[in-house]
Write the structure tokens for this entry.
Amino acid sequence: MSEHLSPKSVYYSIFAALMVLTVVTVSAAYVNLGNFNAPVALAIATFKATLVVLFFMHVKYSSRMTKLIVVTSLFFLLILVGETMTDYGTRGLQGLLEPLQ
Amino acid sequence: MSNAVAHADAHGHAVHHPNLQHHFETMQQQKEASSLGMWLFLLTEVLFFGGLFFAYLLYRMWYFEAFAEASRTIQIAPGLINTAVLIGSSLTMALGVRAAQTNERSATVRWLIVTIFLGCVFLGIKVYEYADKFEHHHVPGPNFISESPWAAQEQIFFSLYFTMTGLHALHMIVGVAMMSVITWMAYKGKFSSSYYTPVEMAGLYWHFVDLVWIYLFPLLYLVERHN
């Protein structure tokens, strides 16, 4: 149950944090981090998404059932991406599996 | 509670909250059921957008140079402004739900109207961006023009750009329509601190759409900007 009433200050703080993190995202894109530009961008986006889910969407104060559904959605997303990647990620290996002459 | 009493008389059974449906025991159980349904819907939305994000991820790994090149042609400013607008609309949405929780009817209506307004600003900027892409021939198809040797792969990027931002914008349009109905209901005094579930559920949807954009912005606008 989300009978919990968040103080307005919580919402304003989360808003400020999301804005700051947006500026950080853009700034980080202009710095050459080698292979880490994409992971950094995704990490910041995921942190922002977590703030939205926990505070704006009240999951922090929701029932365990709601929390379970949130985690389940991430689990199924992992299956979707992970399992499909086992196909696409290993297509180049096909030649190795053919019998030797 | 004269409303509730009249309702009880009409049915010939115990007094209950006028918004309590007969197949629920308590208001709390009813609300938990709504919340469960909404989150299950959002789960399907995660997978709906998840498939597109996966397609993006795969093509980005295969044709990174083309994606970097195509992404650099997109103006950052409108995307950045839209990110701020959408985060702002999530704030006003959260404050709207809060006002409903605390029984402030006019504040609820006011925050919801601001939320709808910000949603429309987002869509307006999106229209400008799309028009800009048509003007510069960055729309995949026979009129696509690119100097790059990766022209074919750049079209894959723009196909994903239009599909993902298009479906996101469609969600925004649905959100604005839904929020208009909720605002009207709030204005008519349909909600109170003991019953504001529709405001809260519409809010969950709105925040989810914001959440999708939080990922779309860096992935589409900022592929490789450091050279």
